[in-house]
Specification:
Layout lengths: L6 H7 L5 H13 L2 H18 L7 H22 L7 H4 L4 H34 L19 H36 L1
Helix pairs in contact: 2-4, 3-4, 4-7, 6-7
Length: 185
Amino acid sequence: MDNKPPASVQADENTPRNPLDRAIVRIGDLLSLLFIVTALISFYEVVMRYAFNAPTTWVHETASFIGGALFIFGGIYAFATNKHVRVVLIYDAVSAKKRRYLNIFHHIVGLVFAGMLAYSAYFTAEESWFAPWGDLRLETSGSVLNAPYPALLKGLLFAVLCVLVIQFTLHLLQEISSIRKSKDV
């Protein structure tokens, strides 16, 4: 017997569950345009390097920064759209009721893990943004460009992990609420 929900229910499972998820999806859809920017500036680098023998000093680092930032944001986007990694071997083999309990377990473990990562990321970001004596001093790449990309990525990672903690909390509360509602019926 197939325990998978119908396609219409699966589609609903992939829609954002709350206003935060909807905002993340809207922002993510806009940010995805940066992949085009990355491709364009990479193309520009190839043309400049091989057609004009005038390589750039900024394209590689900038493209890596954009890609890294989008990768970091992609985690909360995947969670907002319910497309994150899941052990489907177990998840798809159980009833809808048991899935709710698996979701609660997942959200609790994820909340603890995201909280620990955010805690650690705070110290990493703080160290990359401030000198030991407290002055604002963004860590730079140390290259010819010497852009503050490392500090910006570490700050973004901390911010995104804080959002992930909020997401896990909201999803956990929604799962608990749905179990309570199903018991009331």
